[in-house]
């Protein structure tokens, strides 16, 4: 399998996913949940013990399935929903009373976002700092061109996750930020393994073997490990997606998209990009020699 020789195909596939995502982000943005926009906060004290599932069923019927529910002491329930007017809140209270049980409303108020503009900016700053540290680490351990290829592969994964959530307007909450940062850490680990194999093979390079064949061989030698690792993670994430409950779905879906994208970019983007950088360096050296000749 000639991965490096077909690298333009892999680049095209990535662009076919990333470009629509960027366009969607510019035109529609993300479907921000109540963690970002704020909403209504309701606190109920029930006469009898209730479960989160009972309350969730009523919220689903009112198209409020993405709301956050917290249960305390078996009969105290905190519900954080999208902004509702007084009539909508009264209807929800009556529906919960009739379907779950008698209750007393302890709190009914409008609250601000959990993740404000300042916190979102700090998350972006953390991502930028992490990128700089990754560049420094890979430059010291390998070389600068490896570092740039790795960061481009990471940005690929971030844009894929964010773009898909924008295209399908999947509501995002605070766990989405955690998922994106987790994907960055997961993806770079897989990329480092492949880069390490390339470096090992460069040290044992045969005179008759060209760079393209060496990089391709290095990727193929680590491909089984990469695929087996990602499949184990995917199996767990799929199980969580279907049986892990409503509150973990955003995190799990973002992780699932990011892990698959990370495996793809590590194999089909990072190493081919490094190879292209080395080819550009070689061409530049040839041009400089021709000028001095």
UniProtKB/TrEMBL annotation:
The signal peptide here is: none
- Superkingdom as given in the UniProt entry: Bacteria
Q: Where in the cell is it found?
A: Cell membrane
Q: Which Pfam families does its entry note? A: Sec_GG, SecD_SecF_C
Its quaternary organisation is: Forms a complex with SecD. Part of the essential Sec protein translocation apparatus which comprises SecA, SecYEG and auxiliary proteins SecDF. Other proteins may also be involved.
Biological role: Part of the Sec protein translocase complex. Interacts with the SecYEG preprotein conducting channel. SecDF uses the proton motive force (PMF) to complete protein translocation after the ATP-dependent function of SecA.
Q: What is this protein called?
A: Protein-export membrane protein SecF
